[in-house]
Amino acid sequence: xxxxxxxxxxxxxxxxxxxxxxxxxxxxxxxxxxxxxxxxxxxxxxxxxxxxxxxxxxxxxxxxxxxxxxxxxxxxxxxxxxxxxxxxxxxxxxxxxxxxxxxxxxxxxxxxxxxxxxxxxxxxxxxxxxxxxxxxxxxxxxxxxxxxxxxxxxxxxxxxxxxxxxxxxxxxxxxxxxxxxxxxxxxxxxxxxxxxxxxxxxxxxxxxxxxxxxxxxxxxxxxxxxxxxxxxxxxxxxxxxxxxxxxxxxxxxxxxxxxxxxxxxxxxxxxxxxxxxxxxxxxxxxxxxxxxxxxxxxxxxxxxxxxxxxxxxxxxxxxxxxxxxxxxxxxxxxxxxxxxxxxxxxxxxxxxxxxxxxxxxxxxxxxxxxxxxxxxxxxxxxxxxxxxxxxxxxxxxxxx
Amino acid sequence: xxxxxxxxxxxxxxxxxxxxxxxxxxxxxxxxxxxxxxxxxxxxxxxxxxxxxxxxxxxxxxxxxxxxxxxxxxxxxxxxxxxxxxxxxxxxxxxxxxxxxxxxxxxxxxxxxxxxxxxxxxxxxxxxxxxxxxxxxxxxxxxxxxxxxxxxxxxxxxxxxxxxxxxxxxxxxxxxxxxxxxxxxxxxxxxxxxxxxxxxxxxxxxxxxxxxxxxxxxxxxxxxxxxxxxxxxxxxxxxxxxxxxxxxxxxxxxxxxxxxxxxxxxxxxxxxxxxxxxxxxxxxxxxxxxxxxxxxxxxxxxxxxxxxxxxxxxxxxxxxxxxxxxxxxxxxxxxxxxxxxxxxxxxx
Lengths: 400, 348
Hints:
The complex is a heterodimer. Chain A is of the alpha+beta class.
């Protein structure tokens, strides 16, 4: 039954004013240990004393299984099915103990994140191990999951729609977004998904990252025992993504606007400078977003908003170099905060460090901080110009 | 008022307010919630005094400049919101007839010391933040006001999302925030809509493919809270009948709950209340549930005291949650489902 309209009533609304005085300092050199196994799998453990939670994250690099027109979305579909567990009751078993887990499929990796009490780390690692087992799915399971993903696609945010289109404009088939193509996924078979899983779980593609209040040696030992069982095999390779192309894209199923700067891999210092510029620009607007996932490949950094259909582009086009330079201290501060903020929690720490390791990169978050700290104002101005309309992908959403 | 309150004060013009409030990278925010204004300011720790000055200015001496009001009135009608925000707060407000005089009258009625809680959170010694606020604001005495005569125009509602997403919102009955009611409803909300083994996920998403996103939300009302079950899906030609099918399916599942369902909900409740896990049914802050951030924890400390007169005590609440029996849990959840009013907003 429909709800009647309720009158808006005036009453004494209390006001809360929060003054937050944030000190985003890294904890004093918490010990951490990265162990590369003989089969090339990696276990990473970091002790974060005093944290209330632990985070156990399993990464599968997409080396050898990158999106292609004929497999577009298979990894995402696989993630959905893997997370059910071998007996399709993994969520119930874990949640009964208060262990919560989610999965995410990005271009360069798939990530499964388990959040638990510190004393439950061994259980969470065991659950991660279950995801390394070959999946057992039927065509009916696949068909069912594609229907769920149809709903997922329908409710994608406007920011996601902009990202998908910007990547398509900049990189074409080399920038296929990881959600996938429902029509392609509908043709997936159990054999297709098992093949992807086999390639994905080659030990050289696997990283286990754990952070929280933990004993590094004890946790590493458990991780090594799990990943050490993986059979070494032909390591997947991916060709380098081509250089991105500037352009413009207009969407009728989204609202908002922004720009996507074309950037190199995360090892290139100018990429961190561009992130600083994006964050500084976004801070000039009330509800702007910045989208960036560190990658060793060429990529994009997006800055946009979805509550208004103009503003960011106008501001970018009107700013002089001295106005850009005035944002330099803020950009530097925000970029540092972006990195340090992630490292301040077990989930963020395991995610950032684990994802960089899964890229096969020797890059560490500390290298990102160094690139930011060494950034001069001239670097920042040059980075902001990467959002110029002729150098970037301009995206506009015109949904009424 | 929420948009213009924080723009400029007697001591700081628009540019200065922005410059100072951005020192920690995020501008001051004022969010209008169903039962309060939430005003947040982040500053570097060494700028405690400046932060308190900014706070004092916003609370006691906002300028409400004509230009800011006109700008807000022009922008707000065109400001888009996500489908989720529209579902949570389905009001379509109009701004044409608002005058500065009316805003000032409302400000004088609401922004009074007896209505206001200031929370200072950060790396301080005990009492340091409170002292800093006291040094500046202890002389705040708002003048006596006469009863406010106000013509209330009922707000119109969002009748269709601009996005191609339909939302089904089962709004349960209001409940008062005494300890036992809250504990029962918190556990019920967790069992109904938190996690992959919740009723909403298993039945609405997995069993019936009716949605991808479905959550429970404990949402503030004027006098307490209500439990809402929110479901977002692709629009369909069968919208009208679908809501009642959903209700029936949810009710049937609740009736079948066993001790394991209660155990699961209690285990997740523990993680939410005590550990700040990334999911929560506490939709008190706006479009997103409360998190374990410093800002949200500080807000909750003040908010709970306002709502209940008591400090926010997760340990005590968890103890009550763990004492809820299976029968109580099923009765509470069953009542939420049976008595909820369905509010459907179709998508475009």
